[in-house]
Structure prediction request, 310 residues.
Amino acid sequence: MTLWADDLYMSVPYLARMGKLTGDNKYFDFAIKQVEQFNKYIYDEATGLYFHTFFNDENMNGVARWGRCNGWVALAQVELLNNLPANHPVWAIAEDHVNPNLLFVGTEFGLFASLDAGKSWQKFMNNYPTVRTDDILIHPRDNDLIVASHGRSVWIADDITPLQQLTPAVRATDATLFDIRPAIAWLNDQQNNQQVGGQKVFVGENAPRGAAINYYLKANAGDVKISIADVNGRTIRTLEAAKTAGINRVMWNLAPQPPQGQQGGGGGGGGGRGGAGAVEPGTYIVTLEVGGKKLTKPLQVLQDRWLNER
Prediction:
């Protein structure tokens, strides 16, 4: 089998334009499948470049990494991004490793996301500046979206699991509780928690302590409740929840219900294991109540075993 990058440029633009002209999504689906196949066979992850030819039967690469080869591939992929706003040069593109319909592109003027394999795009991250975005990485284990900007350092969107699971079927439901990433009950490092004089200290913003509970509402809801129970079914914490349509996130700081009369916000936390008075590591059950329905997901709270592993 021999693959040429030129073939991708000849077929994908045609399919993309046919899809736009006829309104038939099968052309877009076929174009995306071709890009995925070429990425599988002729893309070299070590160099970030495409080989011009690939000989599967001989298990070897032919004619070197030609500059025009990577140009053909880039032009073919850009044809799938033609719904982006005008005058937005594309510098980076990433396909999610869980949901192939979830795409991210970095442009001269910001970061955009697509839930439908590039057919439509929306600007992403509420607090992300309008800045050139040069590179994009989706963390393979934690599912964090990591982007490199020009002049504004590195930005991280913590846990994009809701976007990975926001399929058309999910958007058609009244409410969905997404899978919950395991939460680590971090220990405070007293040894290294020391003050340093001068102005040489730079500390970036860390992700909030605790567990991020994400859910989707098709429309604004009248009453939304979130509760956390242990494996015996005993409710140990209730949290206030947003009622607005779309994806919502509530942070639980891993603390049990505070005594009556004391402040007990969902996030933050002081010293100790994951904050003052945090629950023990183990399995907990999160319940979302909305519209007379109860949706549940398990949550793993992990012990911090990494503090002394340096």
